[in-house]
């Protein structure tokens, strides 16, 4: 397509011409009229702006939809190359035409007002469009010029234009001006015309013919009007009702054919029952048609009907498909998921009366913008995706080893949840199950820890080899934070009240005090001294582990409570170096809550890193990060696997607190249980993660009480912001119905839960029968939340059945015991012979000798 034969310059009188002019190409609007004209411009119209004032905001015109802008040479200089040349036309005085070439690299055209120039049929400057305006045009002369002196385009103020079929001495006919360059190479003088659909992406509807007369009528009425070779003027839809709204008319490059873009109404374009003369639409255009017709008459009960009427369902499907598209890997899978997403996105558009064409228009408008936003995700999404073990999409793309970045766990549905189906735990009666089935109830989902260890190896290795630089690079990659230093050293800034409100500070203080009180009480203050035989004194005393690392998760939630639970016992135990590791926020900062706790517990430094790289840095040390002797703390699979990996590397010489896994709770309830409390306890754990384990053991529950508990689970869960996560966890959870308290306790001891909550008539008495559990919550008023945050007990507890052999984190976890003995000479006389005899028996003569030489000395 070439430059339109003329460019209408809109003046205040021109608004009535806009519907016709907008069909034919861009219009030129002086900046002083932009505000008045834009609202009256047909939606499909394209426009240029002529910058009339020296202080015109050119960038903003372009950003807001102007295709091109006409500027003076001084305006051009001020722009200093900010605007692509395709978007700029330089306005020159007629005596300046000779300098146009100097600007050719910065502009796409020149605009000259000249009574001389417009008569010059030979004004051609290579690679530049030429727009000519005669200050006092003569319409008939102009028409002649347009016919003969293309490629120049003539700028014609609308006061000289008329929506008429014929040009007069005062006004140039719009359609005559437009058709002036057209020629026909057919004997009948007609012009082949391609009709295309404006609102479909597969556009051609068919081929027809036009005459000057039909085009003129089409332009003046803004309807599809053609020239039938048999029946003369053909006003499309005149008899069938299948009229066409005309959107644009264009000449082809050599001015012998036309294209009409239309919105086709009624039964369609072709006389056959098909969408186009070339067959039916396919793909996205077909889908759009289908959805439109379904919107009008979807069968009751059909899925499409459901998505049109259930906004929440449609919303959740869009979110779900977007996530699936991000997670798809192969090209087939990506196409498959993109198709799903487009289906639901288009359903949303159609249900709101938005067509594909409208979407394309929005795209075109966006493409005209020249100032671009940075393109970062909104914090809401960034927080969901960045650096949490679940937001695989963001982390994955820059993962060092391709296959490795997909977490094995499902991604929590942290999108707005709209699934209204009942949230329900399955239930089983223990006595009805055989031994195998009963055993299965004790199992947690298998975590493929070996596979995860393989995945974290390259990350840990990189920190080990590249030190701080590698660590920074991975923090940038996984947590999107570009740090100048990996650590934050004290004194830490005190969070302002805006950052950390007084009531939150107070709550942290209460938790800190209680946890400290309980953990101080656990500390051994005196050595244990025992005389095992006269003169043989054994003792055991405690020493802090000098350097500890505490990991505070920061992926999906900020966990100052974990900072307390790990920082306080480290402080109480007297550890000299406490490194607190936590993933930084994308701006590189640490949450004020965690910062405040770090101050309270007096950490040596905050390591601003998360995941496997943080564990690697603490295990091996870097220039900035002190190497530690033991690493504590929960975390996602990357953290846990890295802890397991470094613990087994003798070079690292580092211990870990315990094997960690998804959080768990087992609630035992009898007839006295309050269903509201029971449900709330189950959900408080279910909201942690989709892999949380939630078990209710019901002792002789009546149907009514069971029903009430189930109802409460459903009602309370649906009111939670993390309902999607809770729903997933509840799906995998179970209610175990038993006949007696004994049966319940036996089951619980076998299960060895991380948290055990007793909703029992005689809860306190039952505690003595508990053999395996991380922490017990006794009676109706002891929710697990108290232990999670502030009662004083620690919330870092053994999961996955490890409560059979592990304790939760406590003060002693941060200390080690040293034993000593003092043997007096009398003591050695008494003890020595037994030692010698045992050493001889083991064949270890040197051991025996060490005693013999002393006994010999004593016997002198
Ligand atoms: N048992 C407990 O006492 C307890 C307490 C609090 C939290 N938790 C658990 O801790 C976990 C916290 O997990 P989180 O994800 O929120 O935070 P997190 O801090 O454990 O993990 C975030 C880090 O994981 C790394 N990571 C994420 N995706 C990665 C990928 N694809 N490749 C490499 N590294 C990646 C990033 O470095 C990121 O910094 C949850 O499962 C929660 O239930 C347990
Ligand atoms: N319940 C978690 C341990 O399983 C700890 C926690 C932190 N915040 C809330 N709860
Ligand atoms: Zn919790």
What does this structure look like?
By secondary structure, this protein is of the alpha/beta class. Among the domains are: 6-179, Aldolase class I (TIM Barrel); 191-264, Ubiquitin-like (UB roll) (Roll), CATH 3.10.20.810; 283-372, MazG-like (Helix Hairpins); 449-521 and 548-648, Rossmann fold (3-Layer(aba) Sandwich); 824-858, no CATH class. 38% of the residues lie in helices and 18% in strands. It has 29 helices and 31 strands. The strands form seven sheets. Strands 1-8-7-6-5-4-3-2 form an eight-stranded parallel sheet. Strands 17-28-27-26-29-30 form a six-stranded parallel sheet, sandwiched between helices. It has a six-stranded mixed sheet with strand order 18-23-22-21-24-25, sandwiched between helices. Helix 16 (449-479) packs across helix 20 (611-620). The longest helix has 31 residues, at 449-479. The structure holds nicotinamide-adenine-dinucleotide, L-histidinol (HSO) and zinc ion (ZN). Residues 688, 788 line the site of zinc ion.
- CATH architecture heading of one domain: Alpha-Beta Barrel
| Name of the top-level CATH class of one domain | Alpha Beta
**CA gyration radius, whole angstroms:** 40 Å
Query: Helical region count?
Result: 29
Structural class: alpha/beta
The separation of the N and C termini measures 120 Å
Overall morphology: elongated
Strand order of the largest sheet: 1-8-7-6-5-4-3-2
Helix content: 25-40%
Mean of all residue-level pLDDT scores:
88
Question: For the record, what is the CATH homologous superfamily label of one domain?
Answer: Aldolase class I
